[in-house]
Amino acid sequence: MGLMGSKTVILGGGVTGLSTAYHLARKGCGSIVVLDKGPVGDGSSSRAAGIITALLWSETGVLARKISLQLFRELSEELDGYTFQAVGALNLFDPQSWPERERLLPLYRRCGAPFEVLDADEMRRRWPQLQPRDEFIGLYDPLGGYSEPDEYVPALARRCRELGVEIREHEPATGFVVRSGKVAGVRTARGTIEADAVVSTVYAWTNALLAEAGIRLPVKAVVHQRYVTQPLAAPLAIPAINADPLGGYVRPAAGGRLLFGIETAEREEQRVTELSYHLSSLEAPESLKEDLRRSFTPYVPQLTGVEWEERRLGLLTFSMDGEPIVGPVGGLPGLYVGVAFHSGGFAYNPAAGLLLAELVESGRTGIDIGAFSPDRFDPAEADAYLAETVKQKHVARRRH
Ligand SMILES: Cc1cc2nc3c(=O)[nH]c(=O)nc-3n(C[C@H](O)[C@H](O)[C@H](O)COP(=O)(O)OP(=O)(O)OC[C@H]3O[C@@H](n4cnc5c(N)ncnc54)[C@H](O)[C@@H]3O)c2cc1C
Question: What is the pLDDT of residues 14-23, one digit of tens each?
Answer without folding.
Answer: 999 999 999 9
